[in-house]
Amino acid sequence: MRIRLINPNTTESMTATIAAAARLVAAPTTEIAASTSRSGAASIEGHYDEAMSVIGLIEAIKADPGADAYVIACFGDPGLLAAREFTSAPVLGIAEAAMHAASFVATGFSIVTTLERTRIIAEHLVRSYGMTQHCRRVRAVGIPVLDLEDPNSAASARILAECEAAIAEDNSGAIVLGCAGMADLTKHIEDRLQIPVIDGVAAAVKFAEALVGLGLKTSKHGDLAFPLPKIYRGITAAYAPRQ
Ligand code: 2AL
Question: Which among 74, 111, 127, 203 could disulfide-bond with 176, CB atoms 3.0 to 4.6 Å apart, if both were Cys?
């Protein structure tokens, strides 16, 4: 099967990190086809960045209509429901996938994300995914997304320290890493903490494989039905749903 893994920010180097994490866990028969959005922000750290990322995301899905499943590799899960409307293949967001995975292996988990403003967005997601019973706390390390790639940012040490605080103060049994750019830190942090550490990229890839294996597609009954054909104007004209 082919999973189209989309980094909805426009930073190629982050796509390479994400793709490597996906390929580490993918089955030998799964092809991970990774792409970087061609439009939008270099990093997604707020509602505006998220909104601006959705056209690039849909473009990436449109460019690969035959994929068996799609993964949106950004922890805000931007455009997740729009993408599910657009295609009948399963679409996984890494935040939703990671939270579900964490809930299977611990009764309570903490999320460790990048900035305070993305922490608030992750709290919204916890509520909209019905995860308030499972998520004990969402924490931010105060590191901008692109600094995760900068060896001088001490990102790894600061994230590890926040995870240790989560175990001590939140009494959480698992950690969810709250940014796709943290995917390469998972093993190091898990080795140090000795509790489950969940990277949503890996979780989403494995759930995508499971859904495809089960023959499940996105329901076209109700709100995830294909978008209604209508006129779109201005810069969205090229994205108007057709009959
Ligand atoms: C993210 C992410 O995963 N990629 C990105 O650009 N922004 N999310 C986050 N919470 O920092």
Answer: 111
